[in-house]
Amino acid sequence: MIELSYQSINRDWHGEAVEPTLEVGLALANDHIVFGGRRQTPAVNVDGSKAAEFYEGLWEADCVELFLGTQGSEKYLEVNLAPNGSWAIFIFSSYRKRIKILNDYKPKIFSQVNEDSWASQISIEKDLLESRFHNSIERSGGGVEFLYNITAVLKDSQKLSYLTLEPPTQSEPDFHLNNLRKLKL
User: Fold this and answer.
1) Has residue 14 got a pLDDT over 90?
2) Cα separation of 165 and 124, whole Å?
3) Is the distance from CB of 31 to CB of 129 less than 8 angstroms?
4) Is beta strand 32-39 parallel, antiparallel or unpaired with respect to 63-70?
5) Which residues does 36 contact at the CB level (< 8 Å), separation at least 6?
6) Which one-letter DSSP state was computed for residue 77?
7) Positive or negative: CA dihedral 16, 122, 74, 181
């Protein structure tokens, strides 16, 4: 597990307090992008999902999500990660137009689920992003300048809550909005 600098998300899309706080982190570590989340509460995983395996539909329970794009492009990547280490990676050509599911990829996964807390991380090769994700990448100082947002879906017994690191721009949750990817990696 790589030590990430975590940021807290303590309010949902509608401004309601989230307790306990969700912590999310993202780092560029050598030739990998590492993304993860952690929370001091029991994990809620999607039935049927398994540790370190691809699973579509993780957003139906606890799931941290990374939306990654580049300036001036509509193309973006969505990474889903569950507390148990189940994962999914999708490539979109533009708003919600999925063009690829990377279910054949084998990312490095770390997951620790305890009775009252969870932490998970996914490590994705930077070369994968450059070669399979974007063919007209902007370069800044010899490297790729990615724009991102970190989001999450949290499930409790009554409802799903939608969280975003970048402040929402509309009333209803929609993590796919291009204008939410403002943070620079």
Assistant:
1) yes
2) 20
3) no
4) unpaired
5) 4, 24, 25, 26, 64, 81, 110, 119, 120, 121, 122
6) E
7) positive
Q: Where are the alpha helices (DSSP H) in the chain?
A: 126-128
Burial of 26 (0-12, 13-18, 19+ CB in 10 A): buried
Exposure of 162 in the CB half-sphere (CA atoms within 13 A): 14
Closest to 9 in 3D by CA, of 161, 157, 185: 161
The closest of 57, 75, 79 to 149, measured between CA atoms, is 79
Residue with tokens 């990998």: 32
What residues does each domain of the chain span? Answer: 6-184
Is there a contact between 182 and 147 (Cβ–Cβ < 8 Å)?
yes
Question: Three-class SS of residue 70?
Answer: strand
pLDDT in tens, 66-97: 999 887 788 899 999 999 999 999 999 999 99
Per-residue pLDDT tens over the stretch 26-70: 998 888 889 999 999 999 999 999 999 999 999 999 999 999 988
What's CA 50's distance to the chain center, in Å?
Answer: 18
Q: What is the DSSP letter of 126?
A: H
Task: Determine whether domain 6-184 maps to CATH 3.40.50.300.
Answer: no
β-strand partners of 97:
94
